[in-house]
């Protein structure tokens, strides 16, 4: 398999510690602050810390780039079944999605894994600000998403600050 | 629009506070602990707190149910471009995905939004343990995902504890 040391023993020790002082066992299923966040999976971005979220507050949907088209299934479930009524999008500086093209990753997969990934749209982007505007637009245009307030941000991984993206 | 009070002023105030004491401005792009987490978007589950993650540690992919098939694009990018070499899956008790069927949500959308969502697989499940096993299997079988250690957990929203799911 791999010579990298597994994170599992550390994760399980951390979880024991978390559970030992756990006091949030009676929270309801629907998010208390009625908001769904769509954010990049990037390791440096912790949406709960960045936005001051507590357990029970918000749905947090994350994927490579924080792309809303990839989060559509989750957003519809969030709104239709769990009654969120606001959406916040967070992309960030120094994003991996700025470093490759769809063609490049497909070539890499063909060369290194001998597999064809032509059926996947990897959704990279070359303009960070535009990527946020595009992702707001995708939600606004989707007939499956309710007409709710949507706010888009760029998170700066160097400063910890959010910058609002205005059209 | 909506009479619900927006979360934005509170989110921006929380972010100012976070940024004011921010010390993590020099982290590299690839996750330091070389792991990708796939977890449910549920508001009560904070993967960073549950697993003891710091900024920079891990990719966190989240969607309704923590379904790996929906996270495949992100997992491939995580492994191919940012060199993660372990996967952890977290589903949880009292999950919204246990409360509906694909047919039911499609009917709801047809009735309430007058829209057809037949092109979306909403991926609900009726057996929590089996959903974790299924999601491990999907990754193991995908030729686009490297053969890396995969661990699946059920998070108990009442206790804060992770339970490992063994096949």
TrEMBL record, chains A, B:
Sample GO molecular function, one term: zinc ion binding
Cofactor(s) in the UniProt record: Zn(2+)
InterPro entries in UniProt: Carbonic_anhydrase (IPR001765), Carbonic_anhydrase_sf (IPR036874)
Chain residues that bind Zn(2+): 40, 42, 92, 95
Reactions catalysed according to its record: hydrogencarbonate + H(+) = CO2 + H2O
Cofactor: how bound: Binds 1 zinc ion per subunit.
EC numbers, comma separated: 4.2.1.1
Keywords assigned by UniProt, alphabetized: Lyase, Metal-binding, Zinc
Gene3D superfamilies in alphabetical order: Carbonic anhydrase
Record family assignment: Belongs to the beta-class carbonic anhydrase family.
Name of the molecule in the record: Carbonic anhydrase
Taxon lineage: Eukaryota, Fungi, Dikarya, Ascomycota, Pezizomycotina
């Amino acid at each position: 398999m791999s010579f990298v040391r597994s994170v599992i023993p550390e994760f399980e020790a951390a979880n024991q510690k978390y559970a030992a002082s756990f006091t949030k066992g009676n929270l309801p299923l629907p998010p208390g602050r009625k908001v769904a966040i769509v954010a990049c999976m990037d390791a440096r971005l912790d949406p709960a810390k960045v936005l001051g979220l507590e357990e029970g507050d918000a749905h947090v949907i994350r994927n490579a780039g924080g792309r809303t088209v990839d989060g559509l299934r989750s957003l519809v479930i969030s709104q239709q079944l769990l009654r969120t009524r606001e959406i916040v999008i967070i992309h960030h500086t120094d994003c991996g999605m700025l470093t490759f093209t769809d063609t490049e990753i497909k070539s890499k997969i063909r060369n290194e894994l001998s597999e064809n990934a032509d059926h996947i749209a990897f959704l990279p982007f070359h303009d960070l600000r535009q990527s946020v505007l595009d992702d707001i637009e995708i939600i606004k245009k989707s007939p499956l998403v309710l007409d709710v307030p949507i706010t888009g941000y760029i998170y700066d991984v160097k400063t910890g600050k959010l910058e609002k993206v205005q059209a």
